[in-house]
TrEMBL record:
<dbReference type="InterPro" id="IPR011006">
    <property type="entry name" value="CheY-like_superfamily"/>
</dbReference>
<dbReference type="Pfam" id="PF00072">
    <property type="entry name" value="Response_reg"/>
</dbReference>
<keyword id="KW-0902">Two-component regulatory system</keyword>
<feature type="domain" description="OmpR/PhoB-type">
    <location>
        <begin position="124"/>
        <end position="224"/>
    </location>
</feature>
<dbReference type="InterPro" id="IPR001867">
    <property type="entry name" value="OmpR/PhoB-type_DNA-bd"/>
</dbReference>
<dbReference type="InterPro" id="IPR001789">
    <property type="entry name" value="Sig_transdc_resp-reg_receiver"/>
</dbReference>
<dbReference type="InterPro" id="IPR036388">
    <property type="entry name" value="WH-like_DNA-bd_sf"/>
</dbReference>
<dbReference type="GO" id="GO:0000156">
    <property type="term" value="F:phosphorelay response regulator activity"/>
</dbReference>
<protein>
    <submittedName>
        <fullName>Response regulator transcription factor</fullName>
    </submittedName>
</protein>
<dbReference type="InterPro" id="IPR039420">
    <property type="entry name" value="WalR-like"/>
</dbReference>
<dbReference type="GO" id="GO:0032993">
    <property type="term" value="C:protein-DNA complex"/>
</dbReference>
<feature type="domain" description="Response regulatory">
    <location>
        <begin position="2"/>
        <end position="116"/>
    </location>
</feature>
<keyword id="KW-0597">Phosphoprotein</keyword>
<dbReference type="GO" id="GO:0006355">
    <property type="term" value="P:regulation of DNA-templated transcription"/>
</dbReference>
<keyword id="KW-0804">Transcription</keyword>
<dbReference type="GO" id="GO:0005829">
    <property type="term" value="C:cytosol"/>
</dbReference>
<feature type="modified residue" description="4-aspartylphosphate">
    <location>
        <position position="51"/>
    </location>
</feature>
């Protein structure tokens, strides 16, 4: 899962990045309004953490811009503003949640998970598709109730595919999803190909069905509905 942190407090952002990276999230960071604008215009995220007080702009205006772009990311406001009016305004204008500073990192992690689960996985911790069962909390995968050992990257790819089922995903999108701000990995499509090849092999050998399709010269698609 890919997270964009938009916050002018470098020390807090570093702590969040460290914690969320340990929880298997890919984190990108923008410390200004303008940098956040440029990232949102180009990339897609599973969840955005947005501070309202940015050094060069008002985060509430950025929230409005995100919603005008019709982006599908969940947005959690992380702000020192504690007024009732700020919270109501943010929630009425598209924020999925509002967390006041200071906060406990496990609570932040729980709220991120809840927003992503609600938006992408029908508010369930368990995904079942045919013989395939994925436990989002335990980060485990079973086929016909037999555990399938996946690497972290393979698991991240699997749930990204499932969360974007029936949508063709380019190699560039997948590289960005797995690499975050590591520019070198974004351009190394051979690495992405290797992860996908291994994932497809494990799923097929386990008997999950041929859900993960290669779309010639375009990318890949999790094609589940056609096999229901």
């Amino acid at each position: 899962m890919k997270i964009l942190i938009i916050d002018g407090e470098l020390s807090l952002s570093q702590v969040m990045i460290s914690y969320l990276s340990a929880e298997n999230y890919i984190c990108e960071y923008a410390n200004t309004y303008k940098r956040a604008q440029s990232k949102i215009a180009v990339y897609d995220y599973d969840c955005i953490l947005l501070d309202l007080d940015l050094p060069d702009g008002d985060g509430s205006k950025l929230l409005e811009e995100i919603k005008k772009r019709d982006k599908q990311e969940g947005v959690i406001i992380i702000s020192a503003r504690q007024s009732y009016e700020d919270k109501i305004y943010a929630l009425q204008n598209g924020a999925d949640d509002y967390l006041t500073k200071p906060f406990y990192l496990p609570e932040l992690g729980a709220r991120i998970f809840s927003v992503i689960r609600r938006r992408k996985y029908n508010n369930s911790n368990i995904i079942r598709q045919g013989a395939l069962t994925v436990d989002l909390l335990a980060k485990t995968v079973y086929i016909h109730e037999v555990p399938v050992p996946l690497t972290r990257k393979e698991f991240d790819l699997l749930i990204y595919f499932i969360g974007n089922k029936n949508k063709v995903l380019s190699k560039q999108e997948l590289a960005e999803q797995l690499s975050g701000d590591i520019a070198g990995l974004r351009d190394d499509h051979n690495v992405i190909y290797a992860h996908i090849k291994n994932l497809k092999k494990k799923l097929q050998e386990g008997g999950a069905g041929n859900y993960l399709k290669t779309i010639y010269a375009t990318g890949y698609k999790w094609d589940y509905c056609t096999q229901d």
